[in-house]
Specification:
By secondary structure, the protein is mainly β. The chain has one helix and six strands, in the order E-E-E-H-E-E-E.
């Protein structure tokens, strides 16, 4: 059992959907940048333990003093579509529903 208190839920998952007979992990990655250069990284272990990677774009520079940010859902990718035997860096164009404005 992990620190979350749910059997099977690992600390490599940001969100989990818990059903009677299964747990679906969702990894959420937030990065500061702009649409032209932003990239998200996911480790092999995170790929194996999660069903979906959700990528969030933060356009303001991140600071501990700032309490609010304008977040953009850049897109998502089912982890079974990530074809890599190691960690992977993903650009905006690799994501599903990625649509720059």
């Amino acid at each position: 059992m992990s620190e979350s208190g749910y059997p099977g839920f690992e600390d490599l998952q940001d969100v989990c959907l818990c059903f009677e007979d299964s747990i679906i992990g969702i990894q959420i990655k937030a990065r500061y940048g702009n649409f032209d250069t932003i990239k998200w990284s996911i480790s092999r272990k995170e790929i194996e333990k999660n069903a979906v990677l959700v990528c969030i774009l933060i356009q303001e520079e991140v600071s501990e003093a700032q309490t609010e940010y304008h977040l953009i859902l850049a897109g998502f990718l089912p982890t079974n579509m990530i074809k890599s035997s190691s960690s992977q860096t993903l650009e905006l164009s690799f994501l599903v529903l990625a649509k720059p404005t």
